[in-house]
Amino acid sequence: MSRNIRRRLAVALAVLTGAVCASAGHAAGVQPIVGGDAVSIRDYPYAAYLVDGRGKQFCGGTVVSSTRVLTAAHCAVAVDESDLGVVVGRERIASSAGDEVGVTGVWVAPGYRDPLSGDDIAVLTLSEPVSVSPARLPRGSDEHLYTPGTMATVVGWGRLFENGPKPGTLHAADVPLVSDSECAATFRSFDADTMVCAGYDSGGVDACQGDSGGPLLVNGTVIGIVSWGDGCAERGKPGVYTRVSAYAEHLRNDLVRSTGD
């Protein structure tokens, strides 16, 4: 594990204990959008964020049914279930728009240990239904969505640059998917079965602290979850995302469908 990745993991833990306000999307723990633009929640109605017991945003999420939110495992286990909340329909964190709901259940991928080991995926069961349009989960026929070079959109409320300020409002940025071979050459911990990389070789656009758990989207389909990386938007260091297609059948058949949605 590189020194920078270890440092970002430490930052993530500090964030969740109240020492700083970061989020693990790009360092096995917390991430915001670098090189992106402010966007309307109307364009991404399924974008959600997680709050701790003090109401502080620390990770992102994606509404996939009226009572289920997809996020990163490292986000789901960072806070006690009783202190975990989900905010939907809110573009500006400081506003009172949308709804904040509690969590009554947390499913974490059985193989999860830490983001670098893969299986960084979780599903939160909400205490009450929410009325927002859900994102689409990938199907077996959607492997073309992972073609290298495909432009994907990462969405979140994370920092504008590494250790920088949070924007306080929803941001989005477009990044190209990177081939598995290229990502494996960059990161020894990369696992093509459970992860996918995205970013420009020149850097400059990426998820960052506070974006962890948020979606990587292609045409409204959530193909990835912000998971980890080495710094934010650094040259030659793409972001690493959980490959949602690896879990989609289980999510659809055993988790989302169980709600009757």
What does this structure look like?
By secondary structure, the protein is α+β, with helices and mostly antiparallel strands. The chain folds into 2 domains: 45-134 and 248-258, Trypsin-like serine proteases (Thrombin, subunit H), CATH 2.40.10.10; 136-245, Thrombin, subunit H (Beta Barrel), CATH 2.40.10.10. Helix content is 13%, strand content 28%. It has 4 helices and 13 strands. The strands form 2 sheets. Strands 8-9-10-13-12-11 form a 6-stranded antiparallel barrel. The protein has a 6-stranded antiparallel beta barrel with strand order 2-3-4-7-6-5. Strand 3 and strand 4 form a beta hairpin. 53% of the residues are buried. Mean pLDDT is 86; it is low at 1-32.
Lateral strand order in the biggest sheet: 8-9-10-13-12-11
Helix-residue proportion: 10-25%
Structural class category: alpha+beta
- What are the secondary-structure elements, in order, as H or E? HEEEEHEEEEEHEEEEH
> What's the total number of strands?
13
Q: Rounded to an integer, what's the Rg over CA atoms?
A: 16 Å
Assigned CATH architecture of the largest domain: Beta Barrel
Shape: globular
The CATH class label of the largest domain is Mainly Beta
The CATH superfamily of the largest domain turns out to be: Trypsin-like serine proteases
Mean pLDDT: 86
- Approximately what portion of the residues adopt beta-strand conformation? 25-35%
Number of helices: 4
Q: What number of domains?
A: 2
